[in-house]
Every structure is written in structure tokens, then in C-alpha cells.
């Protein structure tokens, strides 16, 4: 066992250099120089900014302290027993499934009070499939699908909707629909990466060019169109989709 000043031995074993030496290469206005003793306005300013940042962080930490995860764990287990799954809970709380899982299994011993509050606020009766959650993440997935060339009608059909348009509210959607959209998104996006024969797409593209649409215009309508306007033998199903969709839009 080594006896000595622990500070000194820590510096030695970790290969840290004394602060004065570290600060020498720093410009004024770097907090290291303040710590090494410089009190010029720039270094004082750097230190003040740091102190303020620490004070803000402390305040945030006091408002949202770390608490034991026991209450949250018990609540997640009670919700699970009442049939509320981790995925539903994740959508409703906006806490990742991995985090919820770790809390539930006791792998996470602590969590932030705000996170605990969100979990404890969940009620099994309200988390039935019909419960409403923020629609923004769902619409982001739909927008990604539209961008990839899937039509609203195709998305509506994929969701099992029979009517004309896509029937989803902009503000709130049910947990059931949020989950359906997520699954459809993952499936269609995986489909979109498949390679398909480009011949039909090349025909449609040529028709648009023959109609007088300029390449720049078409590139704006269709993501991933080659500069040359000539397609390789195989293209992604997503690109083929987009070409078909643009053709439909521009020729009707
Ligand atoms: Zn200075």
C-alpha cells in the first residue's frame, strides 16, 4: 500500500499535468487560465460564464432530482399486470422502451423525478388502445412515407382504413393508431429499399421529359433521381414509387 499525498499520486498515475502547465497553451478567456491564476477580464468572464452554467445545472438538478426507481418500478409492474405493455407505455410517456425495461427489471436503480412523475401519471384504464397521445411523432412517420412516394391512399389502406382519405387527427392519435403507423412505416420503408426493374420507371420518366418537364423540376419532385435522368437497370422500389407518384401528379 502506498502512503503519500493522494492528490499527488493521482496526478502522477493518471499522467495529468499541473494546471499552470496546462493553462500556458490556452488563450486568455479560457477557464483553465483563470484557474491558474489569471484575473484579466477575458479569463474572469470565462469563469463567470462557467459558474452561471453550473448554477443553472444545480438548480435544474434540484428541481428534477435523481430519486430511487422503486415507485416507478412498482407502477410499471402494476400497469403490465393490467395489460399495458412497454411499447404502449413508451409511446404514452415518450420514455424509451429500453429505459422502461431497465426500470422494470430493476437494472436502473434511480431515475429523474420528472421521469418518475411521467410514469406514475399513467393509468391502466386510460392506456387502453383507445388512449390518446401526441400525434406529432406519428405524422413525422407519415411524412417520411409520403416523401418516399407512398400515397395517402396507400397509407390509409395499409392502416386498414376504408374511406377516401387518411383519417388521422393532427393533434392527438390513439395509441393503437400510433403503433399501427409505426409498424406500417417500418414495413413499407423496408419494402422501399428492395431493388426492382427500372424499365417501367424509365418509361414514365421519359414521358414526363417529353411533356416538357425540366430535369431540375423533376429532381425537386423526386428524391434520388440521377442528375443524368437516366436510370440504372435496377432502382429501389421507393424511387420507382416516387416516379410513379410524380407521373400521376404531373399528368392529371
Ligand atoms: Zn487571462
Give short descriptive properties of this protein.
4 domains; binds zinc ion; disordered N terminus; 14 helices; 252 residues; 7% strand; single chain; mainly alpha
Explain what this protein looks like in three dimensions.
This protein has 252 residues and is mostly helical. It folds into four domains: 6-63, no CATH class; 66-120, no CATH class; 132-192, no CATH class; 195-251, no CATH class. Helices cover 60% and strands 7% of the residues. It has helices at residues 6-14, 19-24, 31-35, 41-63, 70-81, 86-93, 97-104, 113-120, 136-147, 152-158, 175-192, 199-210, 215-221, 237-251, and strands at residues 66-68, 110-112, 132-134, 172-174, 195-197, 234-236. The strands form three sheets. It has a two-stranded antiparallel ribbon. A two-stranded antiparallel ribbon has the order 3-4. Strands 5-6 form a two-stranded antiparallel sheet. Residues 1-13 have low confidence and may be disordered. The site of zinc ion has 6 residues, from α4. Residues 28, 33, 38, 40, 42-43 line the site of zinc ion.
Please describe the topology of this protein.
Blueprint: H1 6-14, H2 19-24, H3 31-35, H4 41-63, E1 66-68, H5 70-81, H6 86-93, H7 97-104, E2 110-112, H8 113-120, E3 132-134, H9 136-147, H10 152-158, E4 172-174, H11 175-192, E5 195-197, H12 199-210, H13 215-221, E6 234-236, H14 237-251
Antiparallel strand pairs: 1-2, 3-4, 5-6
Helix pairs in contact: 5-8, 6-11, 9-11, 12-14
